[in-house]
Amino acid sequence: MAISMKSLGIDQLPFEERLSLAEELWDSIASDPAAFPLTDAQRAELDRRIAEHEAHPETAIAWAEVKDSLLARLGQ
Fold first, then answer.
1. Which residues of 33-70 are buried (b: 16+ CB within 10 A; e: fewer)?
2. Would 13 disulfide with which of 17, 45, 53, 65, CB 3.0-4.6 Å?
3. What is the C-alpha to C-alpha distance for residues 16 and 14, in angstroms, rounded to an integer?
4. What is the pLDDT of residues 23-37, one digit of tens each?
């Protein structure tokens, strides 16, 4: 039997707990960059975005602010 949200009971968790679990899961995946190498196009896009941010750092929005805004929109 495959592991699923339902078999683990994750689908029964409140939204905030599922979101936190998703963030934790992603962090565990992202901690090994060799697991998913970037294509040349992806690397070029990231380089472009970094250059844009370095040229205009005042336009950045903190993750906590983005998350709070999204949760507010969802009524959470």
1. eeeeeeeeeeeeeeeeeeeeeeeeeeeeeeeeeeeeee
2. 17
3. 6
4. 999 999 888 878 888
